[in-house]
């Protein structure tokens, strides 16, 4: 029996839908405190930040940051001050501007529009200790999202199956008709434990580039043809 058509797509947030442009983020934070920026430093700091967050994304010792906003703020500052060359005042400026510097990848808007045209429901499932909805609103994408399932609001973090069960409930979705799209093999790939197929994409650092979300649209089209 062929698989049923996909009626719901769940997306991770950071480095799947949104990312910070290194120059905009790092240079903007440095300018706020009057700090010079060396050539190559924005890319190095941004890459180190991404690597440190991804490395600890499913570490039990760090999961508290994604369940409590007060812990999240402090934990992000610790991550930033652990990067070579980032002093406490620079870390504070980087932390204060990070969420507002995030931008959607080049193919997010077109992918969302295509999915909605196909009648597919869209959810955002994220391990995060702050509200990410303003990022979608600033970029005119909030109207495409049917449900935001954020760890600090639902009390579960990926890869706990409970967070995907919360997403399925919020979207009234069938796991067999749902796919989870993300960038973290252990975190986002953990959706399979909840009966949800997972599509894990390779890293793309800059939001100015396409994220490869054409794979998602192709998957939706492919499942529609087979059903």
UniProtKB/TrEMBL annotation:
Domain of life per record: Bacteria
PANTHER family, A to Z: HALOACID DEHALOGENASE-LIKE HYDROLASE (HAD) SUPERFAMILY PROTEIN, PTHR46649
Pfam families reported for this sequence: Hydrolase
Organism of provenance: Actinoplanes friuliensis DSM 7358
Keyword check for Signal: no
Keyword Protease: no
Lineage: Bacteria, Bacillati, Actinomycetota, Actinomycetes, Micromonosporales
Record protein name field: Haloacid dehalogenase domain-containing protein hydrolase
Transmembrane domains' residue ranges: none
Keywords: Hydrolase
